[in-house]
Amino acid sequence: MHILLAEDEHALGEWLSKALEQSGFRVDWRDDGRLADAALEEGDYDVVVLDLGLPGRSGQEVLRRLRARQSPVPVLVLTARDSLAERVATLHEGADDFLPKPFALAELEARLTALVRRSRGLDRPRLACGPLHYDSATRRFTLAGEHLPLSPREQGLLRALISRSGEPMSRQQLMDRVFSDEDDVQPAVLDTLMHRLRRRLDDSGVRIATYRGLGYALEPDPRRDA
Questions:
Q1: Residue 176 CB contacts under 8 Å (≥ 6 apart), including other chains
Q2: 101: confidence class by pLDDT, cuts 50, 70, 90
Q3: What pLDDT sits at residue 72?
Q4: Residue 199, Cβ density class (10 Å: 0-12 exposed, 13-18 middle, ≥19 buried)
Q5: 222 with 204: CB under 8 angstroms?
Q6: Given pLDDT bands bounded at 50, 70 and 90, which one contains residue 124?
Q7: Nearest Cα to 114, choosing from 130, 126, 129?
Q8: pLDDT band at residue 123 under the 50/70/90 scheme
Q9: Tens of pLDDT along 26-45?
Q10: Given the DSSP bridges, would you call strands 206-211 and 215-220 parallel, antiparallel or unpaired?
C-alpha cells in the first residue's frame, strides 16, 4: 500500500513514517501543503493521511484541489481539531474518514486498510487473481492454497501487481512502488525480479503479461484452461 502522509509536526511525521514502513506500508511524507498537493498531482497513491493544519496550503485546500481533479484516492483526515462541525464539513469536502489526535497506530493502520479495501470494492482484506491470493492482514501470498515464499523485493513487486490485477502498470510505476526507499536502483533489477516471479508462477493459472507501450499486468492464465 502506497501512502502519502501530509503532516507538518516533524516528530509525528518521522515516527509515523517509520512505524508504517515497519508494518509493510510505503510512505511518502510531506510537511507542507504545497508539497503534498504537488505529490498528489504527480504520484500514484492508494490512500492519503492528511493533516488539516498544514503550512503553505491548508489541508482543506489540498483536499478541495484533489477532489476538483476528480481523484478517487481515499483520504483520512488526521488532526488535533475534533469538533463535530469540522468533522462534518471535512467529510462533505471529500474526506473518507476522520481520526483525531492522539490516536493508536493499530487503529490508524486498520482504518487505512479498510479505506483502500472499500475503494477497490473488496469486502475483506484479501487480494486475488486466479489461484493467487494475498492476505493484507498476514502479508502472505498463497498459490492454490499453499504458502508462496518470496524475497522482500519479489513480494513488493507481486503485491504491486496484484493490487491492480488485470490493469497494466508501467515500468516507472512499478519501480516507484517497489524501490521507493532505495537509491540508484538500475532498471535491470526489475527485469530480474520479473523473470523470477514468472518462473514461480509458471503453469500456476496466473501469469504476468507484457503489454507493449503499457507495461505489465497480473492476470489469470488462459493457457491453463486450454
A1: 43, 44
A2: confident
A3: 87
A4: exposed
A5: no
A6: very low
A7: 126
A8: very low
A9: 899 999 999 999 999 988 89
A10: antiparallel
Cβ contacts of residue 224 below 8 Å, gap of 6+?
Answer: 203, 204, 205
- Do the beta carbons of residue 66 and residue 94 sit within 8 Å? yes
Residue 126: φ, ψ to 5°: -140, 135
Burial class (CB in 10 A: 0-12, 13-18, 19+), 185: middle
Number of residues assigned to the chain: 226
Q: Helix axis angle, 59-68 relative to 33-42, nearest 10°?
A: 20
**pLDDT tens digit string along 56-96?**
999 999 999 999 988 889 999 987 766 667 777 777 788 98
Residue matched to cell numbers 481523484: 71
- Residue the block writes with cell 487503529: 107
Q: How far apart are CA 223 and CA 140, in angstroms?
A: 26
